[in-house]
Amino acid sequence: MTADIVRLPGGGEPSPAYNTLALVRLLRLASPALPVGAFAYSQGLETAISEGWVHDETSIGDWICDVLEFNLARFEAPVLHQMMLAWSANDVDEVRRLNDWFLAARETAEFRAETAQMGYSLRQLFEGTGEFGEDEVARLRGVEPVAFPTAFAYAAARWGIGPADALSAYLFAWAENQVNAAMKAMRLGHFGAQRILARVSAALPRVIGRDSKNDPEAMSNFTPCMAIVSCMHEFQDSRVFRS
To answer: CATH topology for 3-10+37-233?
Structure first.
């Protein structure tokens, strides 16, 4: 984010501070209250729980941290970063290429439907709030179907949010949604949920600080167990979540 200079009370030395508007906008993007339907998806976690693959706080935490490490950190986060760079440069052709690449890389029908629905909902939100000019929204509308990271990167870039801050918020929001899904699908208390999020928080600086963010050769979302439970979830008889 950009930094303002804030004078301390009593005439003390100036200190750097985050741009408040950019920070608040980032908090909105990462908020569970963002009306994009994230709460309706577990990304296969519901099936992993019903199959007994994960069954307590430790195994749930291991699952979430492993998906973060081997899936999101190695593919979704780098793509989001590149999308922000493309939006900042007004390179819509590159945005479309990255968007199509991301959609093609969704391992299952449920995963693809999830990101397309959430991306559509976020674009509809921007159109409804009037925060962007018509020409700006038209650029986003020209990407169809729009994946969720594409719409998220669009807002972050237009609001001047730094890539590291945007990636932190995006990944933490994902982890928070996973923890909330676990709390609905099994006996996981609030303290246990917060301990898992503490593990995720400690891992994020290392994940976001990787030098491979812009190296396509280093990108991979190869997480077979996650893809398997997602395929199984499509035919699960009793389920709460859409993925």
So the answer is: Urease accessory protein UreF (1.10.4190)
